[in-house]
Amino acid sequence: MRTSWADSVANSASENAASGSLENNGLSRPTRSTYVPPHLRNKTPPSSEPPAPSQSNDRIGYVGAIGGSRWGGGFKADVGRSGHNSSGSGYGYGGRTGGGLNSRSGAWDRKEREVNPFGEEDGKDAFGEQENTGINFDAYEDIPVDTSGDNVPAPVTSFAEIDLGEMLNQNIRRCKYVRPTPVQRYAIPIVLAGRDLMACAQTGSGKTAAFCFPIICGIIREHSVQRPRGPRTVYPLALILSPTRELSCQIHDEAKKFSYQTGVKVVVAYGGAPINQQLRELERGVDILVATPGRLVDLLERARVSLQMIRFLALDEADRMLDMGFEPQIRKIVEAMDMPRPGLRQTMLFSATFPKEIQRLASDFLSNYIFLAVGRVGSSTDLIVQRVEFVRESDKRSHLMDLLHAQRENGVQGKQTLTLVFVETKKGADSLEHWLYMNGFPATTIHGDRTQQERELALRSFKSGKTPILVATDVAARGLDIPHVAHVVNFDLPNDIDDYVHRIGRTGRAGKTGLATAFFNDNNLSLARPLADLMQEANQEVPDWLTRYASRASYGGNKNRRSGGGRFGGRDFRREGSFNRNMDYYGGGNIDSGYGIPSGYGGYTPGVASAWD
DNA sequence: AAAAAAC
Fold first, then answer.
1. What domain of life (predicted)?
2. What are phi and psi for residue A196, nearest 5 degrees?
3. Which residue is nearest to nucleotide B3 (CA to C1')?
């Protein structure tokens, strides 16, 4: 399997191609069943061959006019919007739901038909989705789970055990979710029980549903609550914050599905897009507001949104939301406006990584919370082959070109191999994209200096396979669910190992194998040790030269040490430093290694330094 | 030092 990177990519592509034949054993490797995120299960197989990719990128007039009009924004106003903002007619007045929710919101006299978010799923891109029946759901049974906190509610094993209500159950069926994922099994009962939650779980493990289901359920139950009526101010009951616009859009799209015909209204607000349209959406009523911090602060200062009635607050990618760049804004939203205090609202923090210092910060926002860490089946540990190569700065471009050439030659005919290339800077992204394009590789780029239209267009162009190479800054590192990414290249490694974890998590999704290649050189010395440790725990081959760098590397403190030494997760910082870590100092500490499966799953052997020690 | 996030 690990013969060469090109083979890995080719294997990945051929597994995609052979998906139909996989369905009966559900295994791409003999030893472990594969985990498929719920939103990707049970899609119908493609009915026709995907079209060959066209050799172009998404920039109008790009080739001939590199200088002037390149950034000119010469797009039509509706370009870049079709994937989102379908909320335009989102009245959610199902007719048979009783409609009590809408009458509060002042839009009850306009019964527009709610767009069915389930009808348009298939045949959307050049790939088609694989049939996932036959997945071995018993794979769930040996996922290590760690909970701590007072009186942790018992997990469930099926959606039927949870009373989410008929409307929500119907949408769960429409989403083809068969059984809850591990994070859902634990998180949903915790939130339904009214508890605050800090959850470590990988993206793609069903996090979005894990916080959306209990929020929607809670809003349906509280539908009789009286909300103030301002002439222009709206009073959402739930707020979901995320660090990037694209991620907010993605969460919004998901939440729309889950709340279809429940009468619960979901609105998204983010920067870079005209505010007027978003204001109109808000005026039509909002129960769940999904937003990026900057635009929300704007709306709050204009008094167009009040947080006074917030019952649920969810921070996705919570560790990023609380890092240095974001923390002041988040504190303003959560502590300095009219948001109810902890204990009077329910707060949920989710991320795949949760450094100790951030946990400490986050505890300001929480009240008697439960900490939940869910290990992963598949994805990084099992399904991503990680390679690291020593590449001098000046050799990076030609090295990348070699990779791409070989990949093109090894690719399965007619199947796209999406490659996501991470760089450090926005300028570097533009310059690399330009260079790739000039060398005949259809590439596009996404970063914070592009307009929102350009960003969304680039993402769509990449997802569809039109430009199968996407050069990205960290704006694309977290949370984005892009199926079919076979290869993540860390052209520039990040300085923080957590960022590396998030970046490589863009591949190896949906039970497919993925490849992550990193270019390492003298500029990345501080990453040598954490990277070597991480790869070792993930059972990856660590080159000798990296081990040497790692042992040589001495750096102060544990800044780059992952919290608790754990991989792909973390542990409750409240339990650090207690005299006996096995005593439940805070009560309720509980390591559940899972349903009678003996310890020793992958690298997570209890007793060894890991997330579960 | 860089990236993200409002106008």
1. Eukaryota
2. -80, 160
3. A474
